[in-house]
């Protein structure tokens, strides 16, 4: 009887040691991570070498400058997510810049990251830049993002679209607050018209 009890214990401990989560296919792991905050999804990279880059393929990103000690860390994190070799879609992007960096240093990164997201079937964009409103200019590609469903812009600058035809066929919700745009520009009116049509 004692031997049989020991073998049962050994069998159950082997089952406990088996890592069933790591056996899941990558798409299922990424789908699961998409329900976590970006911070939580990134922290799963410590679980195993297989999980190290899984967060890079999650289609949601919440990036706030307050979570980083310096500009280099902030840019490195953002660049790794928006790396051109990533082919996945970005469904939801939330960017918040709260003034712990110099204005000129951040502006170009913000514009290029949003531009990269609009080319990856972006559906929901929320940008808030209270300290960087003059230099945080939205890229022209925002005016032609055919997959965009929700647009929330707060304290950013809009470019004059010039000859670019504003087409946002899927846009359902738009929140615009404290925007800056060049004098005599048509950017705001075209955004509103494209949303209403």
Automatic annotation (TrEMBL):
Source species, domain of life: Eukaryota
Residues covered by the F-box domain: 18-71
InterPro entries: F-box-like_dom_sf, F-box_dom, FBL60-like
UniProt name for this protein: F-box domain-containing protein
């Amino acid at each position: 009887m004692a031997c049989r009890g020991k073998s049962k214990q050994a069998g159950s401990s082997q089952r406990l040691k088996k890592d069933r989560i790591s056996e899941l296919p990558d798409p299922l792991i990424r789908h699961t991570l998409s329900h976590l905050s970006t911070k939580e999804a990134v922290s799963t990279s410590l679980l195993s070498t297989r999980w190290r880059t899984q967060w890079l393929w999650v289609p949601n990103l919440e990036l706030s400058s307050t979570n980083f000690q310096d500009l280099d860390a902030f840019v490195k994190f953002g660049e790794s997510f928006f790396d051109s070799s990533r082919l996945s879609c970005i469904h939801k992007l939330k960017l918040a810049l709260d003034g712990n960096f110099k204005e000129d240093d951040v502006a170009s990164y913000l514009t290029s990251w949003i531009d990269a997201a609009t080319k990856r079937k972006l559906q929901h964009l929320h940008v808030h830049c209270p300290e960087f409103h003059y230099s945080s200019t939205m890229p022209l590609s925002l005016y032609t993002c055919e997959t965009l469903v929700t647009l929330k812009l707060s304290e950013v600058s809009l470019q004059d679209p010039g000859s670019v035809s504003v087409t946002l066929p899927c846009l359902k919700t738009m929140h615009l607050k404290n925007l800056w745009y060049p004098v005599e520009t048509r950017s705001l009116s075209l955004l509103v018209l494209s949303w209403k049509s």
